[in-house]
């Protein structure tokens, strides 16, 4: 065997060393015998090789001849097979562990494989383990962590094959595990053209995070002993700038699917970064959707969503989000900002993008954010215009659909009532047409399908008159049909009379509707209003808000609807498979009133019949947080409008507009803050389970 070593390096001296220096080095090497567990035989051979080297270099003639050989290009030392292991040990000791490991590994493979159980096998196996470890250390010092991991991995495989040195193998495995973060850093920090190494690093990073139990480190693993959460976060901050924005999006979305909330928030930031930097506003929608679903403790998401609204040119929504922030300092800053509120929001958004969003990506250059260039971008303008048109179309379509549904429902009910009335009418009690009205007054009106209570006794006379005319026309038409002679002479007259019946019926319905509407208006006007206004002047939302601010919640009344009290809306299950908007409105009113009373500390919240437990738990958590802060909330909310958005057999979504006022007050009675919206748009979602409808969730500021 030829070793890549000369006699000077073998004994550990320079070529210019004197004889005395060589003898001193020789004695030190003899005294410092490796104690890792080599056999006596190989240690004896090691001593003999050192002695031969010392004799050669201290003899002037022999040394001169050897130096001439080196000058003529000679390199390496030849060793006989029986001294091969000792030579490899000296190579390792001389500071060449990588060369020693490669040659030792080769000596353990066929056809050079030593006999099982022999001292040579034991010495070579031990030497392989020691040289693998030292090779890894040497590579780490050069910051070549991937190569270091390769040496450890090969050493572990070799020991597994040999079936020896279990303790040393365990040490190597621990070294390999502790080296994983550095190995990932090595692979990802390479040039992007090295796609194979970069992809390998990404896979290793994802496996490491998953094995730890997400970015939060929820699982106990072998990495916990050397890479605690604080160390991992520092490592991850170092790794992040070597990943592109799309790589981070893919990674964080995958980790979020596995239950990591922090990954969800980082996915939101990455989507915002790619949306803003690449002028892809659709990515901002995806980012907003993710953030709305996150439930990170202590996260105030309102100003962040407000920034996205601002970038999408929805100024009113952005302002509403910031006003809804739970950060008192932020609200104070906005309220006390010397300039325009929009200017303050733009400054906040600009700083947020520069400092928190557009940083830590390999392919995004961190620079000063220019919001003007964003809004001046033609593609952004076109996207926002399309968005506004789409929103208008959806609104119009929704309104038309609601009108169509209401119209079809009204026609269907009217038709059913009309048919039922005709079917139940006793023609034998009818005299000739001249006496119909007097005879009809004798009938029992309660037998008819029309419900007088529905009209609250406001249009009973119109109602009676309509029934009389229907009966009169039916009787006349029936007598006409009996005249077969007329029918045979003019069959088309049948259709003419049928048309007259329907036409008269339509006129009656119109009269009934107008009178009913007028009666409702008269009843509303008859009530004493909260705000003194001229009867020809419309009440503005501003007036409503001002009045809300003046009244406590138990005295709150709406100008357009009856006062809301918990007694007005009994907490009972909504079992109707297809509830009306009025029933849904009542359910939401009960929720709003009960929630406001609870947050004000006036009552407990007990709505399990109509509200899902998750929504109740969130309200209880909000109240507990307020108690810790020493505050309570007075919330006044009035439903000014409710529209059906969608309905299936198991889910109903309604869009509600609220006149909303919230006051935050300290327990001492000191006023803290006030927030109002006119209107506040909220989507309420109901779910059908256990044979009743329950409020499942709501989304504010749509």
CATH architecture of the domain at 543-700: Roll
What is the terminal separation in angstroms? Answer: 80 Å
Fraction of residues in H or I helices: 55-70%
The spatial strand order of the largest sheet comes to 3-4-5-6
Largest sheet: 4 strands, antiparallel
Low-confidence residue ranges: 393-401, 403-490, 518-568
* Rg measurement, Å: 44 Å
Q: Averaging pLDDT over every residue, what do you get?
A: 77
Q: Which range does the strand content fall in?
A: 5-15%
**What oligomeric state do these chains adopt?**
single chain
Briefly, what CATH class of the domain at 543-700? Alpha Beta
> What structural class results from the helix and strand content?
alpha+beta
How many beta-strand segments? 6
Work out the helix count: 28
CATH topology of the domain at 543-700: Nuclear Transport Factor 2, Chain: A
Describe the model.
The chain has 28 helices and six strands. Among the domains are: 1-93, Helix Hairpins; 243-376, no CATH class; 425-526, no CATH class; 543-700, Roll (Nuclear Transport Factor 2, Chain: A). Mean pLDDT is 77; it is low at 393-401, 403-490 and 518-568. With 702 residues, it is α+β, with helices and mostly antiparallel strands.
């Amino acid at each position: 065997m030829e070793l890549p070593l000369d006699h000077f390096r073998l004994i550990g001296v320079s070529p210019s060393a004197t004889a005395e220096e060589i003898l001193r080095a020789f004695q030190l090497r003899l005294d410092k015998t490796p104690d890792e567990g080599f056999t006596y035989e190989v240690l004896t051979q090691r001593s003999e090789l050192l002695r031969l080297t010392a004799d050669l270099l201290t003899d002037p003639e022999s040394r001169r001849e050897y130096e001439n050989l080196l000058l003529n290009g000679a390199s390496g030392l030849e060793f006989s097979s029986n001294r091969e292991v000792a030579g490899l040990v000296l190579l390792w000791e001389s500071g060449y562990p990588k060369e020693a490991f490669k040659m030792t590994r080769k000596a353990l493979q066929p056809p050079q494989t030593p006999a099982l159980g022999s001292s040579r096998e034991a010495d070579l196996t031990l030497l392989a383990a020691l040289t693998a470890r030292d090779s890894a250390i040497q590579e780490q010092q050069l910051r070549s962590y991937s190569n270091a991991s390769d040496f450890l991995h090969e050493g572990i495989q070799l020991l597994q094959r040999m079936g020896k040195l279990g303790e040393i193998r365990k040490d190597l495995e621990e070294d390999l595990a502790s080296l994983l973060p550095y190995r990932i850093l090595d692979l990802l920090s390479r040039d992007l053209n090295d796609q194979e190494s970069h992809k390998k690093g990404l896979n290793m990073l994802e496996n490491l995070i998953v094995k730890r139990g997400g970015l939060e480190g929820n699982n106990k693993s072998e990495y916990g002993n050397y890479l605690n959460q604080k160390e991992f976060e520092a490592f991850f901050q170092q790794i992040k700038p070597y990943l592109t924005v799309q790589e981070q999006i893919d990674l964080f979305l995958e980790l979020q699917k596995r239950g990591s909330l922090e990954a969800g928030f980082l996915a939101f930031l990455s989507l915002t970064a790619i949306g803003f930097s690449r002028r892809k506003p659709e990515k901002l929608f995806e980012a907003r959707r993710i953030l709305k679903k996150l439930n990170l403790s202590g996260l105030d998401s309102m100003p962040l969503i407000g920034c996205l609204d601002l970038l999408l040119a929805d100024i009113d929504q952005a302002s509403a989000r910031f006003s809804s922030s739970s950060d008192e300092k932020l609200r104070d800053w906005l309220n006390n900002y010397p300039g325009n509120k929009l200017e303050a929001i733009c400054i906040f958004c600009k700083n947020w993008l520069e400092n928190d969003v557009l940083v830590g990506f390999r392919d995004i250059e961190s620079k000063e954010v220019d919001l003007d260039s964003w809004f001046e971008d033609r593609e952004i303008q076109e996207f926002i215009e399309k968005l506004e048109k789409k929103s208008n179309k959806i609104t119009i379509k929704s309104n038309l659909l609601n009108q169509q549904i209401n119209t079809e429902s009204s026609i269907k009910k009217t038709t059913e009532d009309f048919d039922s009335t005709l079917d139940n009418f006793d023609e034998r009690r009818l005299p000739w047409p001249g006496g119909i009205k007097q005879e009809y007054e004798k009938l029992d009106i309660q037998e008819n399908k029309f419900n007088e209570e529905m009209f609250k006794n406001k249009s009973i006379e119109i109602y009676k008159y309509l029934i009389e005319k229907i009966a009169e026309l039916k009787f006349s038409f029936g007598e006409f049909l009996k005249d077969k002679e007329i029918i045979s002479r003019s069959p088309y007259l049948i259709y003419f009379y049928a048309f007259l019946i329907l036409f008269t019926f339509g006129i009656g319905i119109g009269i009934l509707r107008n009178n009913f509407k007028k009666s409702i208006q008269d009843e509303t006007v008859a009530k004493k209003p909260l705000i003194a206004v001229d009867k020809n002047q419309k009440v503005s939302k501003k007036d409503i808000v001002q009045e809300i601010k003046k009244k406590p919640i138990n005295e709150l009344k709406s100008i357009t609807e009856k006062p809301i009290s918990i007694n007005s809306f009994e907490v009972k299950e909504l079992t109707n498979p297809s509830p009306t908007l009025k029933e849904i409105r009542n359910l939401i009113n009960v929720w709003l009133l009960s929630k406001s009373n609870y947050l004000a500390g006036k009552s407990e919240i007990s709505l399990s019949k109509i509200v899902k437990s998750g929504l109740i738990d969130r309200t209880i958590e909000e109240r507990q947080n307020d108690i810790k802060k020493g505050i309570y909330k007075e919330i006044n909310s009035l439903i000014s409008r409710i529209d059906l958005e969608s309905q299936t057999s198991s889910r109903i979504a309604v869009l509600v507009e609220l006149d909303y006022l919230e006051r935050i007050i300290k327990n001492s009675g000191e006023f803290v803050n006030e927030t109002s919206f006119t209107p506040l748009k909220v989507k309420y979602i109901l779910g059908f389970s256990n044979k009743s409808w329950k409020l499942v969730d709501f989304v504010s500021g749509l």
